[in-house]
Amino acid sequence: MDLLVVDNDAKFGATLDAALDGIAVTVLEDCTQLRATCDGLADNQIPVVVCSNESDMHSCVEWNPRLTVVFWATQVPTDSQLLQLMRLGARDIWQASESASDWLPRLQWLTKLNRGIHEVPGDFQRDIETARLIQQGMLPLDGAVLNDYQFSHRVLPSAMLSGDFIDYFAIGTRYLAFFMADVAGHGASSALLTVALKNISWRLQQRYGRPRFRSTGQMLDWINARLVDQSIDRHVAMFLGVIDLQTHTLHYASAAHFPPSLRVCDGGEVTSLEQRGKPLGLFADAVYESAEIDLSEGDRVVVFSDGVLEQAHKTDLQTREQVLKDQAAKADNIEELWSQVTANVSGEDDASLLIVKRLS
Question: Is the pTM of this model over 0.90?
Answer without folding.
Answer: no
